[in-house]
TrEMBL record:
Species of the source: Limosilactobacillus ingluviei
One Gene Ontology molecular-function label: 2-dehydropantoate 2-reductase activity
Residue ranges of domain Ketopantoate reductase N-terminal in the record: 3-152
Presence of keyword NADP: yes
Domain Ketopantoate reductase C-terminal: from-to ranges: 186-306
Annotated Gene Ontology cellular component terms: cytoplasm
EC numbers for this chain: 1.1.1.169
A Pfam family per the record: ApbA_C
Leading EC class: oxidoreductase
GO biological process: pantothenate biosynthetic process
Gene3D superfamilies: N-(1-d-carboxylethyl)-l-norvaline Dehydrogenase, domain 2, NAD(P)-binding Rossmann-like Domain
Protein name (record): 2-dehydropantoate 2-reductase
Length: 315
């Protein structure tokens, strides 16, 4: 399969590397100039499950990507705040046979991508893999994980493409699962991000350290209930107990992990994706008349921390 990976940070590196190792034709698309320079001169470098790996793959800035001979799949793994500009810039890549897959953190990305891609060409999902970008030229990839994806419509060609992508990802060892309703899965993953990413960033701890605290369960449950209440207004009925258990399973599965929001703000002093996670729930809750005091407070606190640290993009 000919695949363009749009956003080659930690997670983009994992997917690009695994897909290329499995024999797919992978092109890298990156907006961060320092990262792009490293990709072009040094290749895709990572420590994958304890082994140093280097792979030379074509890498381009978004406005430089050759549109021919065309891509089967454009995989978005960029930061949420970069999605709209990147999706717009990459419009020449969306050929008549091209599908777009979004596996990013955050909720509502299908609405952003839907401005540029027909719904019947759009696949949606999430990933529970972890990644850590140590430097612009090196990524640490460890821990186990999985991903989920599905089609947004019942269009037979779209449904078949979702299955094809699952097959390709399975051959690459990415442990995919085909979904009937990817929007439900995105909200469920949002519960993980809206608890662990946000709280570990504010408290400056890893996943296991947070999970060991006495108030952890009550905090997770309260936040998940707000996600569920807003999801219900959108026709998505989350199982709160199951979602809480899913979050709490991370304490052991990826306990040593520092979430991507922590890496963005605490390590690299960059703005976070909070507006697309807890901020999404707070905004949509307010619009629907649903109280979301935890998500409102957490969103405000993360923005305060961004301002106190003078967080800025260095791309």
């Amino acid at each position: 399969m000919r695949i363009a990976v749009a956003g080659v940070g930690g997670m983009g590196t994992r997917f690009a590397l695994k897909l290329a190792q499995a024999g797919n034709d992978v092109t890298l698309v990156e907006t961060w100039s320092a990262r792009l320079a490293a990709l072009k001169t040094q290749g895709l470098q990572a420590k994958l499950d304890g082994q140093e790996v280097t792979m030379q793959l074509p890498a381009y800035a978004p406005d430089e990507v050759p549109a021919t001979p065309g891509f089967d799949l454009v995989l978005f793994l960029t930061k949420s705040m970069q999605l709209a500009d990147l999706a717009r810039t990459l419009q020449p890549l969306y050929g008549p046979q091209t599908y777009v897959l979004c596996l990013m953190n955050g909720i509502g990305h299908e609405q952003t991508l839907g401005k540029y891609v027909p719904q019947e060409r759009l696949l949606l999902g999430n990933t529970m893999w972890t990644a850590q970008m140590a430097r612009p030229d090196h990524v640490l990839l460890q821990d186990d994980g999985s991903c989920e994806l599905g089609s947004l419509t019942a269009d037979p060609a779209q449904v078949q493409m979702a299955q094809t992508v699952v097959d390709v990802f399975n051959q690459a060892g990415l442990k995919p699962r085909l979904l009937d309703d990817p929007r439900y899965s995105v909200f469920r993953k949002g519960c993980v991000n809206g608890t662990l990413n946000t709280l570990c960033t504010l408290l400056e701890c890893n996943v296991a350290e947070f999970g060991q605290t006495t108030p952890a369960h009550a905090l997770v449950e309260a936040i998940v209930k707000e996600f569920a209440a807003v999801g219900a207004k959108q026709g998505l009925h989350l199982d709160v107990a199951e979602a809480v258990a899913h979050v709490e399973s991370c304490y052991t599965v990826i306990g040593e992990h520092y979430p991507s929001m922590y890496q963005d703000l605490v390590v690299n002093n960059r703005p976070t994706e909070i507006d697309y996670i807890n901020g999404y729930v707070a905004r949509h809750g307010q619009a629907a008349g649903v109280a979301t005091p935890y998500c409102q407070m957490l969103t405000a606190q993360v923005h305060v921390k961004e301002q106190l640290r003078h967080a800025h993009n260095d791309q």
